[in-house]
Design brief:
This protein is 36% helix and 28% strand. The chain is of the alpha+beta class. β12 and β13 form a beta hairpin.
Amino acid sequence: MKHAILSCNGLDKPEGSVAREVAIRASGAAGSEIICPVLLNRAPARYKKVLGESSLIVVDGCSTRCATRLAASVGARVERKLLVSDAIKASGHPLESTLTLSADGIALAQTIVDGLLRDLNAPAPAAQPMDTFEAPTEYLVVIHDKFEFRIPVVDYLFNENDVWVRASDGVARVGISDYMQQKLTDISFFDQPKIGGTVEQFGELGSLESTKAVFEIISPVSGTITAVNPAAIANPGFINEDPYGGGWLVEMRLTNWQEDLELLIDPAAYAETVKRKAAEE
């Protein structure tokens, strides 16, 4: 698979200068085409062929994530996201407040590129989802104004962050609730976690983006990520259509299920949570 690189245009910040340097260096090392964010925004047809043949590497300078939002707006297939501000925090060395990169800024850019190249060259673990769960047939329904929010009665547990889990034989499937998918409206992008990675209960499992918000997926359980739903990646709108069935997000091998259970809530308790949240909006 070929790659293309989309970098933020935040040249008014040191982080933007690093993002630009990362894009230039990564393009040279990986033989990837750089996509101009201004041209992509004004004339996306210019890059239709490139985006159709390549997976996209997005480089954002800061948490505004302009490049990520632009990629989502044109429906680009994003393989990797790099956030310079996170790399700065991890390094423990803040950048100088100058748009001309210092030796530290250049070194940081090269460190980010080196990590990217290692990821691109590493073989990806095979994603093998478990046998499909039977779709839920019985629901609690919370009604608020003109909205109805469904909550499966059997086998589903929730956290307060509107994420559900369904476990079987030491493996769990995770997704977002009907309440949350309606709150987000049209979901346009699923920033997936890395298969083979581990996460603790209340750790992050990627994010979902819509025209209204970016939603951080807070894991209801601890475990190792064994699969990501390819249907949700290819068509994020499927999450809106079927949040408890085919629109699941992640599968995990559980590592601390009995303790995790203590901080999960059942469907009836989650229904009360939804009532409260809907009333507060």
